[in-house]
Amino acid sequence: MFKVRHEQRKVSGRITVEMALLLPVVFLWITWLVFFMVFLMDMSAVKSETMRLADETSMVGSKNRTKSKEAASRRLAKRIKSRLLITNCENSSVEIGVSRVISEGTVSFRWPFSGNKPAGVHGLRFSGRSKTPADDWEEYLRMHIFAMEAKKETGNKQNRRNPRRK
After folding, report:
1. pLDDT at 29
2. Rounded to whole angstroms, how far apart are CA atoms 92 and 75?
3. Per-domain residue ranges for the chain?
4. Concatenated DSSP letters for 98-151?
5. Secondary structure letter of residue 88 according to DSSP
6. φ, ψ for residue 104, nearest 5 deg
């Protein structure tokens, strides 16, 4: 009877060694998967905030759009930082042109250990960029009228030089 119990212990001991090697690997994969899923959530937050800010800024009137560039940059950085779970906002910027608004935000994983981050270690990084055309009908109308007036002026100058052409 003693020999039977001893053999049973050997069999169960083999499973213990296999589990001691297998479980840390499984836990690391599960942990990595959870962190990656949260990183995907942060990616979608950055993309949605850049799109939202680009749309909001493009709807501002043409006179106020250039004044609102700094305010839009601050607002984008604040919104992105408030929605991030496990990443840091590296930079955020807003470019405002006559015909388009571009907003961009970049996030990367935080360095999980205390101390300085080693050089050359970047980890996962995501950059969300949104480009929106200026959605201001007054500005489009003004540009269209300006183009028509410029076309008339060039036509009048040509007619003054050559009066026979009409």
Report:
1. 93
2. 10
3. 2-114+121-133, 136-166
4. SSEEEEEEEEEE---SSSPPPTT---SEEEEEEEEE---HHHHHHHHHHHHHHH
5. E
6. -145, 140
pLDDT tens sequence across 148-163: 877 777 766 555 555 5
- Contact between residue 41 and residue 119 where contact means Cβ atoms under 8 Å apart: no
pLDDT value at position 1? 52
What's the number of CA atoms in the CB half-sphere (13 Å) around residue 29? 5
Per the listing, tokens 């961009």 go with 104
Give the C-alpha separation, 92 to 85, whole Å. Answer: 17
pLDDT digits 0-9 by tens, 108-151: 877 666 667 666 666 778 888 888 776 656 666 666 777 787 77
Does the model's pTM come out above 0.85?
no
Supply the DSSP symbol for 85: S
CA distance 73 to 59: 16
Per the listing, tokens 């589990």 go with: 19
Please state which CATH number belongs to domain 2-114+121-133. Answer: 3.10.450
